[in-house]
Fold this protein.
Amino acid sequence: MFESRVSADVLRVRRPGTRWLSTGFSGGYHRADAAYNCTVPEGFDRTDLGAYVAERRERAGFPDSGPAMLTGVELRHARRARLDGVEVVATAGVSNPAVLPMADTEGSASTPAPDEGADGDGQPRPGTVNLLVGTTRALSDGALATLLATAVEAKTATLLAETGFTGTTSDAVVVGSDPSGEPAAFAGSATPVGRAARVCVRDAVRASLAARYDGEGGDDVPDSVAAAEYGVRSSERATVSRVGE
């Protein structure tokens, strides 16, 4: 399986030679021995994020470079789930929720108010749901992208059930595959890899939310965007027509 370790507020998930796909600040495909999730301090305003992560890795004693995510959630709230060769480590906070209304809402706005925070400047927010997902199976680039989509779908379903939000304004996911493992052609929800990933995402996110809000954190999950410290509501209506019209 993957080795998970926390040092100096940096989480490392490691398996030599892993092929990663990241939606983080330096996203895309990477081959690296490890991937990271770093807790940043309140008031964080660095913009040289690659250099910042390298500094944090050095301080934590992690020499391996690799894709990284940033979060305002303390790593004592991180939780890991494992099933059938899949591993997920989640950190979950929802102080910056994002909602997508399914009906017209009076007085709602699709962009943040002046005192609210979005992720347009590339900065992590106090909440954030970050996932590190790894499988010991060998996946092609396309199947790895499917695994990412499967993980995001499971995260969204879990957050809707637990909080009523679809996610936050700064969520990120890194998925990884072992190229030396047994090949798996697909990673959708009906496949062994996809099914295990969905279960692990659900259980890790639930456990991290419980640790953050029901455990030592002592805070409550906001019951709406208005009640949250930050957040956005996307409530415009697009123009819809038949294709070709």
User: Anything to note?
Assistant: The two ends are 52 Å apart (CA to CA). Confidence is low (pLDDT under 50) at residues 105-122. The CA atoms of residues 81 and 200 lie 5 Å apart.
